[in-house]
Amino acid sequence: MPLELIKEVSGVPEVQRLNKLQKLDFRALQPGCDYSKKYIQGILSLISPLTHRGNGTAILKIALQEKENSNSEVKTIYVLFFGKLAKDCVQVFYQGDTIALTGFVVLSASSSTNRDSKHSLFLKAFEDFKSTVYVFLKSVRNFKTESMSLVPATHYTYTPLNQLKGGTIVNVYGVVKFFKPPYLSKGTDYCSVVTIVDETNVKLTCLLFSGNYEALPIIYKNGDIVRFHRLKIQVYKKETQGITSSGFASLTFEGTLGAPVIPRTSNKYFNFTSEDHKRVEALRVWASNHISPSSTLLKLCDVQPMQYFDLTCQLLGKAEVDGASFLLKVWDGTRTPFPSWRVLIQDLVLEGDLSHIQRLQNLTVDILVYDNHVQVARFLKVGSFLRIYSLHTKLQSVNSESQSTLLGLEFHLHGGTSYGRGIRVLPESNSDVDQLKKVLESVDLTANQQLDRICLPEYEDSFPTFSSSGSVSLYEVERCQQLSATILTDHQYLEKTPLCAILKQKAPQQYRIRAKLRSYKPRTLFQSLKLHCPKCHSLQDVPHDRDLDIILQDGATRTPDTKLQNTSLYDSEIWTTKDQGERKVAIHFVKNNGVLPLSNNCLILIEGGTLTEICNLSNKFHSVIPVRSGIEGLELLDLSAPFLIQRKIQHYGCKQCSSLRPMQNLNSLVDKTSWIPSSVAEVLGIVPLQYVFVMTFTLDDGTGVLEAFLMDSDKFFQIPASEILISDDLQRSMDMIMDMFCPSGIKIDQNLGEHKKFF
DNA sequence: GATTAGGCTTCG
Fold it and tell me: Which of A46, A508, A550, A585 has the most CB atoms less than 10 A away?
């Protein structure tokens, strides 16, 4: 066999034949010797493109480097492969591969004048010479075969997702767009729902069943690439779907560009050729240009007070709470922006190293998992690495007996499997686990304890206190008015300065203070939210919906110009409203390379729509730009109106700093499916405004009173200013945060007649 | 051999 792919376990080749041969150092090679029972081994450092001789014989030239620990003077040799062997090798060789070679001929100990190749050797290999090449597959934990011949036993064909027909059994490749990790169905099997997409931009939802958990695809995150064999295609409710059929098998690959192509499967035998390798790489390239990277994977330090996200963590402790809920104590080495709630349990039932958990203090969080996830949680091993999908956070304010409030961040994995809710154990070989381990090892516990002493002494004193009731509740942690309630993670190097000292000194200076928040202004959220220009630093109010509707109507009084419809950039449609004076609304669907993308990737330009219509359309389409018919072409409205609306978020531009360019410039965006606001703004000549919270805090530390002007562009206690208008939950969280800083019931400087709460 | 689920957040 001229070319073999072989498994490498801890660097030991697993091929009998190779073990029988004698391994040679590069320096031992010389012309004229018989190398049929000897082999050399090295790392592929260079692969030249395949060339052909005059008579048509293919030639492949590679450079091979000896492992660094070798004492050999000759570090690099060159190998020339001829004929079929050259063609086969070029299919499987990848730079960095380790290969072994036997049955070759040493051409010359080159005495070239070239200094670099003074000691270089050329070897010649071709099939007729009984040359054999062994390619060591990198990191092949998942390969169960002893060795694989390049000659495929079966040739598989793969059907593009836009060519599927009901009633057929097919093989497919795809990028995972959505998945539910395997869970026990109500029948006899495990179930996993996986939605994939390929270059045809067609999606396919697959229902995968197996009595064997391991037999279902080993998907860790969206963007992974899967290969399904023997998938049955059927039609359900007019939608094409895939379902496991007899003999179903799958391979899963990491979707990251450049990552090693290692198939994940529990199958002992499977077919994997260089064609598969290329297919995976092609899908990776396509996905990197057409699918926005999954953003649901978060670190604990980045979680918002109200959201769903995926968490990669290590399990530190677990406890049965009751039949319907189960407690998991986990960490990921980072600190949440708010202290985690603490679930009360009887101390006897906690499995895990309690003293270790205590040492980690606020680096651990408590997660309650419910219903169907309880049975999974019961079998989890303390110390294992987990990914918890669609974990829900909720900020809760708790009134303790002394009427003071505190905030706790709750973590829930609700019952059911919608949105892929579930838990999956990650193997140690997972690259995300690898990264996590490094973070966990580098956590400085001494610093952590100091931080807790400074900021949260109440946690240290009361942790852990378990009630004997066994019911779920929060630690009754009292917010002591004399102690800081927030976590300071930055500026630790600054000494604390009393306000009276600051008042005597000249600005600008940096200080660290500790003071009570006596009051804050403005008193309503809408007044505190502003639009800020990063260029001219102007601040302006966010237009009210009422005014915006008028601006939109005024901006598009002209009737849509039919001459400006259906261009190379977009397809157009005119809608006429009923009972509204036959108002005409023109919608222009922007194409991607001449093809209309799916609605969730599609940008539409709208002429004459109302705010409500635009908001409704922004739910269905990726982005909406309000426009009007101009003389040269479609143009943006006055910048009093948003220049882009995405998921109900209105993006504004600065009137002073922008100089508008024609809509046709959208053509210069290469990828017309991702519509990043800053990129859209750039091509349209707009300087985008950012949403900011602007507030004045009146601070008092007993030595003086200081007015502090706060402007936060991105995240005020993890709450993004740009999203607060579209989320009732975030507004509630903001309410709680402000109420904790400055409890409304006991405000000292409460204005007379001011009964409104903050929001 | 059929069933499971058929993505589309809980309400603790």
Answer: A585
Nucleotide nearest to A413 (CA to C1'): B10
Q: From the CA of A233 to the C1' of B3: give the distance in Å.
A: 18
* Integer Cα distance of A695 and A699 in angstroms: 12
Q: Reply yes or no on whether the pLDDT at A57 is more than 50.
A: yes
Q: Stretch A238-262: mean pLDDT, rounded?
A: 96
Q: Which of A354-368, A458-472, A589-603 has the lowest mean pLDDT?
A: A458-472
Q: Is the CB of A213 under 7 A from strand B?
A: no
Q: Among chain A residues 401 through 420, which have CB within 7 angstroms of nucleic chain B? A: 412, 414-420
A604, with CB counted inside 10 A (0-12, 13-18, 19+), is buried
- CB A265 within 8 Å of CB A251: yes
Angle of helix A545-555 relative to helix A611-620, nearest 10 degrees, comes to: 90
Q: CA-to-CA distance for A727 and A39, rounded, in angstroms? A: 67
A325 CB less than 7 Å from any atom of strand B: yes
Max avg pLDDT among A268-272, A428-432, A487-491 = A428-432
Q: At what angle do helices A83-92 and A274-290 cross, to 10 degrees?
A: 40
Reported as a single tens digit per residue, the pLDDT across A6-56 is 655 554 556 666 778 888 888 888 888 888 888 888 887 777 767 777 777
Distance, CA of A741 to C1' of B7, in Å: 41
pLDDT tens digit string along A103-113? 888 886 554 44
Determine contact, residues A473/A467, Cβ cutoff 8 Å: yes
Does residue A205 reach within 7 angstroms of strand B, measured from its CB? yes
Exposed/middle/buried for residue A425 (C-beta within 10 Å: 0-12, 13-18, 19+): middle
| Cα-to-chain-centroid distance, residue A315 | 21
> In this structure, is the CB of residue A371 within 7 Å of any atom belonging to strand B?
yes
Output the CA angle A461-A367-A317, nearest 5 degrees.
70
Give the integer Cα–Cα distance in Å for A143 and A137.
Answer: 9
Closest nucleotide to the alpha carbon of A391, via C1': B9
Q: What is the pLDDT of residue A327?
A: 97
pLDDT digits (tens, 9 = 90+) for A679-717: 899 999 999 999 999 999 999 988 989 998 888 877 788
A187 touches strand B (CB under 7 A): yes
What's the mean pLDDT in A586-599?
Answer: 86
Find and give the residue nearest to B8, measured CA to C1'.
Answer: A419
Query: Does the pLDDT of residue A134 top 90, yes or no?
Result: no
Which bases of chain B are contacted by protein, using any atom under 7 A from a CB? 2-12
Question: How many other CB atoms are there within 10 angstroms of residue A677's CB atom?
Answer: 16
Whether A728 CB is under 7 Å from strand B: no
Sign of the dihedral defined by the CA atoms of residues A298, A299, A302, A305, in that order: positive
Query: Is the CB of A193 less than 7 A from some atom of nucleic acid strand B?
Result: yes
**Higher pLDDT among residues A282 and A404, named by residue:** A282
Q: What are the φ/ψ torsions at residue A446 (nearest 5 degrees)?
A: -65, -45
Q: What confidence score (pLDDT) does residue A10 get?
A: 52
